[in-house]
């Protein structure tokens, strides 16, 4: 569990400006998403090392095992640090299941950043941004922590769902960050 205390100054240096209440929630292990209208920054504090966080973020083939709404995911192309990933999501929207397929290009800058952009997708016209993994200094050397963040810009081509897209996207970002935290911490515990 992410219950260790780190200084507020460290959090202020690592994240976009967060209110004291958001900083408290972050230290308790909850994902925080800021932004609106398709431009967001999501952060979550994870009790694990950089390598474990990196392994989970780049385990594209296993996304369906731990990310909510992902029914399948596979790597279509690999060229050096560049990967093209196809992902199929299924969401229940207005009492109907909506399936969407997206292909993204990821450029991996190990061990701290993954840049991504939309190659093609159903119901989405813009998706770009980056993941970052930042180690957090703290008093316990045997209890590493990292801040995992996603900065993302997204816009939809969703027909009658256009107006609801940003709210759905923001909620799914928070859910995904919480799921990533759980998976990273699970894998970290299985190592020790």
Overall description:
This protein has 192 residues and is α+β, with helices and mostly antiparallel strands. The chain has a single domain, classed as START domain (Alpha-D-Glucose-1,6-Bisphosphate, Chain A, domain 4, 2-Layer Sandwich), CATH 3.30.530. Helix content is 28%, strand content 43%. The chain is built from five helices and eight strands. It has helices spanning 8-14, 20-27, 50-57, 63-66, 165-191; strands at residues 32-36, 39-46, 70-79, 82-93, 96-109, 113-121, 124-136, 145-156. The protein has an eight-stranded antiparallel β-sheet with strand order 1-2-8-7-6-5-4-3. α3 crosses α5 (165-191). The longest helix has 27 residues, at 165-191. The radius of gyration is 17 Å and the shape is globular. The mean pLDDT is 86.
């Amino acid at each position: 569990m992410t219950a260790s205390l780190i200084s507020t100054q460290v959090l202020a240096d690592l994240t976009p400006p967060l209110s004291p209440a958001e900083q408290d929630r972050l230290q308790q292990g909850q994902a925080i998403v800021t932004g609106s209208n398709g431009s967001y920054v999501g952060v979550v504090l994870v009790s694990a090392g950089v390598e474990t966080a990196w392994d989970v973020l780049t385990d594209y083939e296993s996304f369906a095992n731990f990310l909510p709404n992902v029914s399948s995911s596979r790597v279509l192309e690999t060229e050096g640090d560049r990967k093209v990933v196809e992902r199929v999501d299924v969401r229940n929207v207005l009492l109907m299941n909506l399936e969407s397929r997206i292909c993204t290009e990821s450029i991996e800058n190990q061990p701290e950043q993954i840049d991504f952009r939309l190659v093609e997708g159903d119901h989405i016209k813009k998706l770009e941004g980056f993941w970052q993994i930042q180690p957090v200094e703290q008093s316990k050397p045997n209890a590493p922590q990292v801040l995992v963040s996603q900065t993302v810009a997204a816009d939809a081509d969703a027909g009658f769902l256009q107006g609801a897209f940003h709210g759905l996207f923001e909620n799914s970002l928070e859910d995904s960050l919480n799921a990533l935290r759980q998976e990273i911490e699970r894998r970290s515990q299985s190592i020790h």
